[in-house]
Amino acid sequence: MIRTALFMVAGLALAGPAAWAQSAAPESDDSRYTFNRVDDGYLRLDGRTGQVSICARRPAGWTCQVVPDERAALEIARLQGENIAIKKELLARNLPLPGTVKPEPPAAKPEEPRLQLPNDADLDKVMNFIEKIWRRLVEMIATLQKDMLKKT
Q: Any bridge partners for residue 35, and if so which?
């Protein structure tokens, strides 16, 4: 019975928009629900939420039971079909499928800079430079003292 109702909903979804466009009334509480006759009662479509219910006469009066929502299953089937079509298109263009692509190995991290101490030759150069500066300074002071002594 639920399958019959689902087929009816699918039929309404295909044929309904044209009929609905012709008989579209302004939105009000009176036009919220659309009823269609089925074997044991009515199929009710909520125009605001899209919820489908089967309404049937019971000993206590009319009751409506919500039809299980199969939209998620239909969406999965649609996505699977699209996935197959995309894979066929990739293969037709000689492109690799995403599932078969191997990830590239991670790039080697650049090594952290190391503190490299100067070798003996570099130390000798620095010491010679400092020694030359020191000798110049001593010569300048000595020359300055001589000039000061001459002036007095």
A: 44
Token code pair at residue 63:
């009751």
Buried residues in 51-82 as b, exposed as e (16+ CB within 10 A): ebbbbeeeeeeeebeebeeeeeeeeeeeeeee
Asked if 38 and 8 count as a contact pair (C-beta separation under 8 A), the reply is yes
Nearest to 50 by CA among 31, 33, 27: 33
Q: How confident is the model over 93-143, as pLDDT tens digits? A: 888 777 665 556 667 777 888 888 889 999 999 999 999 999 999 999 999
Surface-to-core class of residue 9, CB atoms within 10 Å of its CB (0-12 exposed, 13-18 middle, 19+ buried): middle
